[in-house]
Amino acid sequence: MQLVYLSPLPWDSFSQRPHQFVEWFHNKHGGEVLWIDPYPTRLPNLGDFRRIKSSKFLSKNVIVGNGNKPPWLTVIQPFVPPIEPLPGSCYVYRWLWSDILHAIDRFIESQNETLLGIGKPSELALQVLFRYPSLKSVYDAMDDFPAFYHGISRFAMMNREQRIAKQVTRISASSTKLAERFIEYQSKLTLVHNACAVDALPSINDTLKTRATEKQVLGYLGTIGDWFDWAFVAKLAETVSTSTIHLIGPIFTKIPASLPQNIKFLPACEHSAAIQAMLSFTVGLIPFKRNDLTAAIDPIKYYEYRSLGIPILSTHFGEMSLRQGQPGIFIANASCDLGDHINKAMDYKYPKSEINWFRKINSWEARFNSGNILPQT
Hints:
This protein is an alpha/beta fold. 36% of the residues lie in helices and 16% in strands.
């Protein structure tokens, strides 16, 4: 079996759930994968216009050869104007996508069995679905995509998602809240949480040895966006004034003008350096606001922290709100007694057996193998 996968992320981005899914699929079925990078599915806002001059969005669609990619993978990069939410855009796209559709035709015709995977709702995904109605298909909902958008873009995304959910053979959702959205499709719905790239982590012995020598650091590693709870982090820093808070990663939101001096910003880093940075954390932070966007999030950071034996201090949001009471998990907010939560988190030590168990059942391979994510053949 081979796979046509319409991804929510570019192949060249940091490895996340989509990358892990196609690698697992190839290892399980041995087939080739045709990966289609995402394209703009919302109308542009003012912040986008300064990037248009250097953008390739009007360039010809590019089919990328294997190069440094796995030999079983081919990547297509669609370049189209950001007009998808507008009525009639499907007719424009149908013309612009003729070479992509022909490439998919050739790929599908080369094998007797092909699975269609959709990682993000889009007009292209709908066109491919209706072009090949006999193919088995799966929509893997990893995020609440409409919640990222506003106005007509949000309405259009909601509409596309519902049309795709109705059409596909199977739906998998990464969080409890997302699964509730598709409850009317219960017969083809499965909950498949996120997981961790366990194979990329140091051994448990090395992990415990490194962590035993570190000073007290409360840390967050990941993207810092509009969902980041600055009020929580500021109060946390005031409460632990003798400790350091490290915030590591790209910043795509405004930083408050006045923050405590013990908050340190560090740049994004590649994966091995990121693992070493996390090993310096006494406590791992997941400080997200509680809103429509975060309600459907199952943060991969949770799986990374626990697989490294790092106790977690999190705000009350999404899937994390259901983890209160788990070993080493402390759920708080800016209005509670943070000192007690911090002390308990700093004092908590995961036993080796707990880390080993957690890694075993929360690797991407274990997750997809047990998640019933693929349609029945």
